[in-house]
């Protein structure tokens, strides 16, 4: 039996807005085996980004637990959690979250700074990956001087450059034209074949259906009936 690399046990994330409680994630249990490529789909507002942030340890559930590589995230100190984020996971945010005053190259180098890569190696690794993503002639552009699709690829490069064990990506092809979207999809498939575990939010049916190994549908913060939270064998 394969043990999961990532597991959510009955997690919720509730937001209090005055008298109203928004149940953005409402009791999700999900286990991801190493090497899976999971597509999270669902209507706008169904809780996809909220769930992704919880799984990545960037947000804390209101109740329930997230386990990653055998560690319970709520047991980690702030330092251990920072280390987990810097070294083990890559995250592509729906809104990119690039550092505005830094160039594309510097944004990607920053991920290598945080994971302790020697200064001498940072430039080459960052430049190589950006070039592979078609941005070789945009290295010195700040985010404001890049198109949405270009910023998205910088965000992807920043997540991938540290060679994480799990890639979390929120709509990584959302701003791309067909050709670039296909190129990114193929890159993700290749990385997944090489062993990268991927959890990806997408509205792109082709990407979900043709590339992912499993699709999980969210509906009002819950996993929709009929979708399994776990594709592998599981102990009773
Ligand atoms: N900080 C917050 N305070 C209150 N409600 C929030 C907050 N963040 C998200 N929500 C609500 O939680 C629900 C889930 O939001 P989330 O961003 O996870 O949806 P999503 O599935 O990613 O949607 P989209 O496809 O539009 O990106 C939404 O109804 C949203 O309005
Ligand atoms: Mg979202």
Q: How would you describe this protein?
A:
- This protein is α/β, with parallel strands linked by helices and 236 residues long.
- The protein has a domain at 34-49 and 77-217: P-loop containing nucleotide triphosphate hydrolases (Rossmann fold), CATH 3.40.50.300.
- It is built from 7 helices and 10 strands.
- The chain has helices at 48-55, 78-87, 104-114, 119-132, 148-160, 178-193, 205-211; strands spanning 6-17, 20-32, 37-42, 63-68, 71-72, 89-92, 166-170, 197-201, 214-219, 222-223.
- Strands 6-7-8-3-9-10 form a 6-stranded mixed beta sheet, with helices on both faces. A 4-stranded antiparallel beta sheet has the order 2-1-4-5.
- Helix 6 (178-193) links the parallel strand 7 (166-170) and strand 8.
- Helix 3 packs across helix 4 (119-132) and helix 3 (104-114) packs parallel to helix 5.
- The two termini are 12 Å apart.
- It binds adenosine-5'-triphosphate and magnesium ion.
- Adenosine-5'-triphosphate is lined by residues 15, 17, 22, 24, 42, 44-50, 94.
